[in-house]
């Protein structure tokens, strides 16, 4: 499957990409733990089948010190012992927020209650925004067949300067 277009080489795509990255920086600089951010982004990207984003978030998490065991087990987090209760709550929110059409209420009250047990208002705001942003990024990349494998950790930070 060949890429359909490189959005970043168009004027519109470049402008959107920069603003999208700036939104991502707001989340990145929030009090939501960085490890949680990468795990959530990775899980949503797995569900959406976004090779580009899986590649990016796996490499960013590894560069930040995340273990291979945890990265490999994100897809089966419910059956793994390596995640905290807070991370489990965030991963549940990521899954339900990604699969909105599967639940008539979107995110269940039970999942929301678990998230609120572990995260304060600032962290919840960042978590909700992160789930929305990663799903938007997944859709952009999947639609244009942006393939994974070539991402290098830190490459977007370097481009933003």
Automatic annotation (TrEMBL):
Q: Name one GO molecular function term.
A: peroxiredoxin activity
| Domain Carboxymuconolactone decarboxylase-like, residue spans | 18-96
Origin: domain of life: Bacteria
Supply the SUPFAM superfamilies for this chain: AhpD-like (SSF69118)
Q: Which UniProt keywords apply?
A: Oxidoreductase, Peroxidase
Record-linked PANTHER family: 4-CARBOXYMUCONOLACTONE DECARBOXYLASE FAMILY PROTEIN (AFU_ORTHOLOGUE AFUA_6G11590), BLL7811 PROTEIN
- What is the protein named? Alkylhydroperoxidase AhpD family core domain-containing protein
| The organism of origin for this protein | Amycolatopsis pretoriensis
């Amino acid at each position: 499957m060949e890429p359909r277009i490189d959005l970043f080489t168009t004027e519109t795509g470049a402008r959107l990409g920069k603003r999208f990255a700036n939104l991502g920086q707001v989340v990145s600089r929030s009090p939501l733990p960085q490890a949680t951010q990468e795990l959530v982004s990775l899980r949503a990207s797995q569900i959406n089948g976004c090779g580009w984003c899986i590649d990016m978030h796996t490499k960013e998490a590894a560069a930040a010190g995340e273990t291979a065991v945890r990265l490999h087990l994100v897809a089966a987090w419910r059956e793994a012992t390596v995640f905290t209760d807070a991370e489990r709550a965030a991963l549940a929110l990521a899954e339900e927020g990604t699969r909105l059409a599967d639940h008539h209420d979107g995110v269940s009250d039970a999942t929301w209650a678990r998230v609120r047990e572990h995260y304060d208002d600032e962290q919840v705001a960042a978590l909700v925004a992160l789930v929305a942003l990663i799903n938007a990024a997944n859709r952009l990349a999947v639609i244009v067949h942006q393939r994974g494998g070539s991402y290098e950790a830190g490459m977007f930070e370097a481009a933003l300067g």
